[in-house]
């Protein structure tokens, strides 16, 4: 156990990035919450949802890697982050122009391209604004604020659906409001610490300079991520399983309500996870989060999917995502030097993105072709393998 050290961590930059995460997630979670229903209105199957999520995450992953590598060489990273937030906002709003599945794919891919560009920059700005012993709280706070947006977003979607009489184009257009506020917060509230110019090195050299322990960490993250399907699939699962009992319209509303509950637990546990990781060994906590993910997937395979079992699944999903995201980010920041933060966060995000691509596509295809048991059983096995690899990482050296 590492004793907590007093440190000033809740500064203007941490608050600005946290609020930007809240508003940006508010924006795209409005769209995400209604995406399965919108696709259903276009006659689209589960495999298409997996393809849309997977391709978008895959494209985003390459943007994260390029952004992380490139921005480590810049004295000013913040303009790249502002541009990324703007692209995400306009890409999400453009869902309203879609008339078939490939239009949705193009809009989602554009939005996630902007998200990919901004992600390593935002994390590097955050890590650079606090001391090392406060990484957990800073990243946990950012994840908590991000997830508050994910709570408000689906709740707003439910209210807006009624207000606009299920006019999806109007609903998607309204996502621009919180999306543009997020970009403004990064532009005007966040202060970037002065950086010295970094000499140009090749991508290969910069990657090889990352510590061996960090690369072992990436292998564990990648294995876990290859099973970590997009949680829009949980919305689809709930809508399908509840429809025979309560009807399609009521099932869709219940599925979104369960997703709100998922995000409540996500928000609540994000800061708790960050607080714990500033006091306990991160690799053990991260392995525990991966095991919780495996339990969630196994419950889907083993138990009948009624409203109460789905409630447990959504709650566990929110808990493990909160812990996983906060722990992975702060562990990443701890494993490398500050001058490598952009590259490290870009590499981590790329590995996660490639894992998301594989998992969403594979789970969607397995679900459609072989059934729910095979699809989510596949995820459970990879979750447990990732947990084992993280558990076996060497312990952290003292700061």
Helical amount among residues, as a percent range?
Answer: over 70%
Report the mean per-residue pLDDT as an integer.
83
- Silhouette: globular
The CATH class is identified as: Mainly Alpha
Helix-strand topology string: HHHHHHHHHHHHHHH
Name of the CATH architecture:
Up-down Bundle
What would you give as the CATH superfamily?
MFS general substrate transporter like domains
Domain tally? 1
What does the largest sheet look like? Answer: none
Question: Nearest-angstrom radius of gyration?
Answer: 20 Å
Structural class: mainly alpha
Strand content: under 5%
Q: What's the N-to-C terminus distance?
A: 13 Å
How many strand units? 0
What features would you describe in this structure?
Residues 1-7 have low confidence and may be disordered. The chain is built from 15 helices and no strands. It is globular and about 60 Å long. With 399 residues, the chain is an all-alpha fold. The chain has a single domain, classed as Growth Hormone, Chain: A (Up-down Bundle), CATH 1.20.1250.
Task: Give a quick rundown of the structure.
This protein has 15 helices and no strands. The chain has 399 residues and is mainly alpha-helical.
Q: How would the blueprint of this fold be written?
A:
Blueprint: H1 12-41, H2 46-71, H3 78-93, H4 101-127, H5 135-163, H6 168-174, H7 176-188, H8 203-208, H9 212-225, H10 232-246, H11 248-277, H12 282-302, H13 307-335, H14 341-370, H15 372-391
